[in-house]
Amino acid sequence: MEYLNPVPGQKFIDCTLGGGGYSKAILDKISDNGKVLAIDMDNLAIENAKLNFKTEIENKRLILVQDNFKNLSEIIKENFDAGTKFNGIVFDLGLSSAQLQDRSRGFSFQSVEAPLNMAFNQDATISANIIINKYSEDKLIKIFKDYGEEKNARQVASEIIKARKESPIETVGQLLLIINKVIKRHGASKIHPATKIFQALRIAVNDELENLKQVLPQALELLIDGGSIIIVSFHSLEDRIVKQFFKNESRDCICSPICPACRCNHKARLKILTSKVIKPTDEEISTNPRARSARLRVAQFRN
Ligand SMILES: C[S@@+](CC[C@H](N)C(=O)[O-])C[C@H]1O[C@@H](n2cnc3c(N)ncnc32)[C@H](O)[C@@H]1O
Question: Which of 70, 128, 234, 252 is the most buried (most CB within 10 A)?
Answer without folding.
Answer: 128
